[in-house]
């Protein structure tokens, strides 16, 4: 089995450099045969693309997509400085 | 003199796939703020097409818009063209320079640009060794130097520094400390502290926190969309604030 750290590094690099994703803020953790993806993106299409790229880069491993969508609420209270 | 209400956001990362979404959230901004600052990472891949989406979302707003680019906006080497497209849409783009706006009689000066990394005092890279290391550090130094001159040139009632990279560690809390040198540089804070400002606004650290302060006591706000979780934050500057 490949060393988990190198799998995590490869997936993270692919997410940053692959044209379909170019996402830098995704945390990639590998435990045994499991890959966990965490972070926030702005739409579900991007969330799926990240999962696709991760699956391609870590074949044979189970990818858990724990990425959430960025909330964008109506502007709230102003802060007085 | 009346107070100024500053709307600020960063890391909107727009693209064809989310066209129109952000614009909708800007409806009514004229009732909440006098100006909108956008702290870089306007796009995902830095393509000209994405730049055009950004220009479309931010153009013809009822309040002036001042923006800087982020690292994502440089990825496809179209940064100059993106700046032109945004400027053609009436957006003020700061590329290591300053702009002064007259907002109903109150003058607001904003200086800044993308910024860059290098790390924070005591734990940062220095101009030593390989040319690659020196070039990295020199890039940030040159930027900080241009910000000094930009700030010095401002004659206004309020001054704000607008950046993509962070000037302090405070607003990076939540990010892995190993990557701090890629998230910002104390040299940016040093320039602001030396010349004086009321506020520094930045983005880039999606997992960071909103509030911090420079060593010289200037308030710092990380307005990355995933951090503020609102379409924008509003900061009020003035005597009554
Ligand atoms: Fe970003
Ligand atoms: Fe960024």
Which structural traits does this protein have?
heterodimer, A: 81 residues, alpha/beta, Histidine-containing Protein, Chain: A, three-stranded mixed beta sheet, 2 helices, 6 strands, 35% helix, elongated, B: 241 residues, Purple Acid Phosphatase, chain A, domain 2, six-stranded mixed beta sheet, five-stranded mixed beta sheet, 7 helices, 13 strands, 24% strand, binds fe (ii) ion, BON domain-containing protein (chain A), BON_dom (chain A), hydrolase (chain B), Metallophosphoesterase (chain B), Calcineurin-like_PHP (chain B)
Any chance you could write out the topology, listing elements then pairs?
The complex is a heterodimer of chains A (81) and B (241).
Chain A: H1 4-17, E1 27-31, E2 34-38, E3 40-41, H2 44-57, E4 62-65, E5 68-69, E6 79-80
Parallel strand pairs in A: 2-4, 3-5
Antiparallel strand pairs in A: 1-2
Chain B: E1 4-9, H1 21-25, H2 29-32, E2 35-39, H3 48-58, E3 65-68, H4 79-88, E4 92-93, E5 97-103, E6 106-113, E7 119-120, E8 123-124, H5 131-153, E9 158-163, H6 186-195, E10 199-202, E11 211-213, E12 219-222, H7 225-228, E13 233-237
Parallel strand pairs in B: 1-2, 2-3, 3-4, 6-9, 9-10, 10-12
Antiparallel strand pairs in B: 1-13, 5-6, 7-8, 11-12
The structure holds fe (ii) ion (2 copies).
Domain BON (chain A): 3-71
Protein name (chain A): BON domain-containing protein
GO molecular function, one term (chain B): metal ion binding
Overview of the molecule:
The complex is a heterodimer of chains A (81) and B (241). In chain A, a hairpin with a 2-residue loop joins strand 1 and strand 2 (34-38). With 81 residues, chain A is an alpha/beta fold. Chain A has one domain (4-69): 2-Layer Sandwich (Histidine-containing Protein, Chain: A), CATH 3.30.1340.30. Chain A has helices at residues 4-17, 44-57, and strands spanning 27-31, 34-38, 40-41, 62-65, 68-69, 79-80. In chain A, 35% of the residues lie in helices and 25% in strands. Chain A contains two helices and six strands; from the N terminus they run H-E-E-E-H-E-E-E. Chain B is of the alpha/beta class. Chain B has a single domain, classed as 4-Layer Sandwich (Purple Acid Phosphatase, chain A, domain 2). Helices cover 28% and strands 24% of the residues of chain B. Chain B has seven helices and 13 strands. Chain B has a six-stranded mixed β-sheet. Chain B has a five-stranded mixed β-sheet with strand order 4-3-2-1-13. Chain B has a two-stranded antiparallel ribbon with strand order 7-8. In chain B, strand 3 (65-68), helix 4 (79-88) and strand 4 form a beta-alpha-beta unit. Chain B is globular, with a radius of gyration of 17 Å. The model of chain B has no long low-confidence stretch (mean pLDDT 96). At the A-B interface, strand 6 of A face helix 1 and strand 13 of B. The structure holds fe (ii) ion (2 copies).
């Amino acid at each position: 089995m490949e060393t988990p750290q190198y799998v995590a590094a490869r997936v993270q690099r692919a997410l940053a450099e692959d044209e379909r994703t170019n996402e830098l803020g995704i945390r990639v953790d590998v435990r045994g045969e499991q890959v966990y993806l965490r972070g926030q993106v702005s739409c579900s299409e991007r969330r799926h693309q990240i999962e696709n790229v991760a699956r391609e880069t870590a074949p044979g491993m189970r990818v858990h997509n724990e990425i959430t969508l960025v909330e964008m609420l109506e502007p709230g209270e102003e802060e007085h400085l | 003199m009346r107070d100024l209400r500053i709307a600020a956001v960063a890391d909107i990362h727009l693209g064809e796939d989310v066209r129109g979404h952000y614009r909708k959230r800007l409806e009514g901004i004229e009732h909440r703020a006098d100006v909108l600052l956008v702290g870089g990472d306007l796009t995902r891949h830095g393509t000209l097409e994405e730049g055009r989406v950004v220009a479309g979302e931010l153009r013809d707003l009822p309040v002036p818009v001042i923006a800087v680019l982020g690292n994502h906006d440089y990825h496809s080497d179209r940064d100059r063209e993106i700046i032109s497209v945004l400027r053609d849409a009436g957006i003020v783009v700061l590329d290591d320079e300053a702009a002064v706006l007259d907002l109903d009689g109150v003058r607001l000066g904003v200086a800044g640009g993308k910024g860059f990394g290098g790390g924070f005092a005591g734990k940062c890279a220095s101009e030593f060794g390989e040319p690659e290391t020196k070039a990295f550090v020199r890039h940030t130094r040159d930027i900080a130097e241009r910000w000094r001159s930009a700030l010095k040139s401002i004659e206004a009632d309020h001054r704000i520094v607008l950046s993509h990279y962070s000037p302090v560690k405070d607003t990076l809390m939540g990010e892995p400390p190993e990557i701090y040198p890629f998230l910002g540089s104390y040299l940016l804070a040093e320039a602001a502290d030396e010349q004086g400002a009321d506020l520094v606004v930045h983005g880039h650290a999606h997992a960071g926190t909103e509030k911090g302060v420079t060593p010289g006591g200037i308030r710092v706000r990380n307005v990355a969309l995933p951090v503020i979780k609102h379409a924008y934050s509003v900061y009020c500057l003035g005597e009554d604030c």
